[in-house]
Amino acid sequence: MLEGKNVNLRIIEKEDLPLFAEWFNKPEVLGEYNPVHQGSRTDAEKMLETPNELKPFIIEMKDGSKIGFIAHFCVLHVANKQLEIGYSLVPSARGKGCCTEAVKILVDYLFLSKDIGRIQAQTDPGNVASQKVLEKAGFKKEGILRKTFFTRGEWRDAYIYSILREEWKEPRILTKTA
Ligand SMILES: CC(C)(COP(=O)(O)OP(=O)(O)OC[C@H]1O[C@@H](n2cnc3c(N)ncnc32)[C@H](O)[C@@H]1OP(=O)(O)O)[C@@H](O)C(=O)NCCC(=O)NCCS
Question: Would the pTM of this model clear 0.90, i.e. be above it?
């Protein structure tokens, strides 16, 4: 368990799968900018087959209520020493700083536990909330990936953001001994 002030990150477990599959099929959870997606519970179960170091985290409030997920994955190839992150919260949990805290915790965890030099994220240019999250968590906008993902019948641009190890410098929420 990665513990923050208002939220904790917990690696996904088998009992989370029904809710996770529900979230993944609900446009209101994925929001208006993520690719439209339909996945079965069996697809969600495959998540448990990924190595522990790449499993998604459930974002929980301190009372244990599950408010969303945050995931990290390899960019192009595992040997590239960089990771990409993605996240979604249920609508009722948004606008309270929870995602920003979850991103800061994950960034701390990834730089503390892995020999990576960079963490990146992509977001639709219209997704101002996600851009604010990344900027508040210390990411910098690098530029635009043109027509990089297909959703809702069209190819869309994405802003690419990153944080480098030397910009991170020190953990913001986790401690080196946690
Ligand atoms: C993006 C998302 C994860 C943000 O989560 P969150 O917990 O609400 O984020 P935070 O509260 O930490 O910060 C959001 C910031 O954006 C602002 N914001 C929210 N909606 C906004 C909008 N439509 N326009 C401008 N700013 C907006 C909030 O006011 C807040 O800024 P502030 O701290 O300066 O007040 C959430 O909106 C979500 O789950 N969206 C659907 C899925 C998604 O888009 N995922 C990201 C894909 S890249």
Answer: yes
- 3-state SS class at 96: coil
Q: Cα(79) to centroid of ligand 1, in Å? A: 32
H-type alpha helices, the chain: 17-24, 27-30, 41-46, 98-113, 128-136, 165-168
Compute the distance from residue 130 Cα to the ligand 1 centre, in Å.
Answer: 5
The two tokens of residue 140 are 């910098």
Give me 96's structure tokens: 């309270």
Cα-flanking dihedrals φ and ψ of residue 41, to 5°?
A: -65, -30
pLDDT digits (tens, 9 = 90+) for 64-107: 999 999 999 988 766 678 999 999 999 999 999 999 999 999 99
